[in-house]
Amino acid sequence: MAKSRILVIDDEAAIRDSLKMTLEYEGYEFVGAATGQEGLVLVEREAPDLVLLDVKMPGMDGIEVLERLRAMNDAIPVVVVSGHGTISTAVEATKKGAFDFIEKPFASERVLVSLRNALAQRQLHDENRSLKKAVEVRHQMVGDSSALRNVMAAVGRAAPTNATVLIQGESGVGKELVARTIHRNSLRSRERFVQVNCAAIPEELIESELFGHEKGSFTGATEKQVGKFEQADRGTIFLDEVGDMSHKTQAKVLRVLQEGEVERLGSARTIKVDVRVIAATNKNLEEEIEKGHFREDLYFRLAVIPIHVPPLRERPDDVPLLVRHYMDGFSRENNMRPKRITQAALDALQRHRWKGNIRELCNTVERMIIMTGGDTIDVPDLPSAVRVPGGAAGVKAGGDGAEVKGGTLREFKDHAERAYLVAKLRENGWNISKTAEVIDTPRSNLYKKLEQYQISQETDG
Ligand SMILES: Nc1ncnc2c1ncn2[C@@H]1O[C@H](COP(=O)(O)OP(=O)(O)OP(=O)(O)O)[C@@H](O)[C@H]1O
Ligand SMILES: [Mg+2]
Asked: Is the distance from CB of 300 to CB of 289 less than 8 angstroms?
């Protein structure tokens, strides 16, 4: 089994040194911090299994560290140590979620017993939660930037109402996640969340998708079909990529919003539907209106509550939390011990422009986890586009096999393979798992190819 990593936060160097000796002798991995601030940074970066925390420290004291730590992470067990072990401090620490309280001066045996108990409990706790978490985590909105907090506040206000919400933002910023979060926190959460990708459905089929059709209403309509609006009755319909609807469809959707009823193609009967509409687009709808591509009246109907999700580069504070989130997630998924990441690597990730936003970051972290052999991710483990400030260190993704002049068969094959992969990735919105599935290759192999050919969403286009 992997060594448990213990973070000791104590301002006294002598105590840190003696604990380091004891812990390492017992087969633990030791990480030390001399201040509360440093400790909190290390919690994020080193992903310790347990924290041993001194109460009385200059600057941020242990109780405050405990509070902040709990706000960041409620799973790490914390054992509080104090030379001023009054009952009240112990009680306060326990209330704030400390696992145990030890008085200084302490015998190392006492510390070890407490650590073992806390770690054992942590393990049970982890096992219990991992199933539940696997489901929840996928829908969790991670981040603590003020920009994201504004988004979450808007989500909180919008959720319990029936108001139509329009979510705008670049590709990969989390629009779908926002839509699902609104539904999950709404009074309709027990009913369906029906998603329609307006950009993916061919023009001639979209109306029958949305509104349904009767058998025989058009050539090819061999069976009757219930439309998405009807399917979403009493629940939520998510009109994704709403900026890509044709004028004709826009007019029909507007009618549903106004009348609250739909008509199946080939039927004169109208059906009342009670549907909450959430729409999303990565286009700038105001501009689309200017250009005459989008109906202004529909825009106003949709944008009762507008939510703008800012691109990741405008909220770099979220990067470390997201990196940690995905590192833990992928490690769990692959049954690997959580890796750590150096500050320099985190800095580089924070500086990166993230053209593909959170989706690109998620792909990058997964690739790092799979490709890094060791326990620590450092700058050389980052994809070159991230490593080199300003990005775009990789070869441009464009071009196809036809451009190859001369060269060896090998070069031609590589070129063709690269072009194929880029095309498939684009087709699948740079979703690595999906692309790997579509082209029937393991994700790890796809990552190796991306590395080999220096392909990333950042270098594409
Ligand atoms: N704040 C966040 N915390 C954790 N994961 C996030 C966050 N925001 C987005 N994600 C994840 O990033 C990925 C992309 O998000 P999502 O699909 O919601 O983006 P989108 O804006 O709908 O993108 P597109 O315009 O390409 O459809 C998803 O896997 C999503 O779970
Ligand atoms: Mg989306």
From this structure: no
Contact 243/281 with Cβ under 8 angstroms? Answer: yes
- Structure tokens given for 324: 């940690």
Contact 284, 168 (CB under 8 A): yes
Distance CA 281, CA 244 (A): 8
Pocket of ligand 1 (CB under 6 A): 141-143, 169, 171-177, 282, 358-359, 362, 429
Alpha-carbon distance 237 to 330, whole Å? 31
For the CA of 142, the nearest atom of ligand 1: 3
Question: What average pLDDT does the segment 235-245 reach?
Answer: 95
Neighbours of ion ligand 2 (CB under 5 A): 176
E strand or H helix that includes residue 254: helix 247-259
Is the per-residue pLDDT at 397 higher than 80? no
pLDDT by residue (tens digit) across 20-66?
999 999 999 999 999 999 999 999 899 899 999 999 899 999 999 99
**Distance set, CA 7 to CA 20, 42, 43, 51 (Å):** 10, 8, 8, 5
d(CA 343, CA 347): 6
Place of tokens 């990529």: 241
Query: The tokens of 64 are what?
Result: 């405050």
Q: Give the residue among 222, 224, 201 at the shortest CA–CA distance from 213.
A: 224
Q: Transcribe 322-369 into DSSP letters.
A: HHHHHHHHHHHHTT-PPPEE-HHHHHHHHHS--TTHHHHHHHHHHHHH
CA pair distance 216, 223, nearest whole angstrom: 7
* 186 touches 159 (CB < 8 A): yes
Token pair belonging to 299: 């825009």
Instruction: Tell me which residue has its CA closest to atom 29 in ligand 1.
Output: 359
Q: Are 289 and 250 in contact (CB under 8 A)?
A: no
The pair of three-digit structure tokens given for residue 57, joined into one six-digit string = 């420290």
**Whole-angstrom distance, CA of residue 452 vs CA of residue 129:** 37
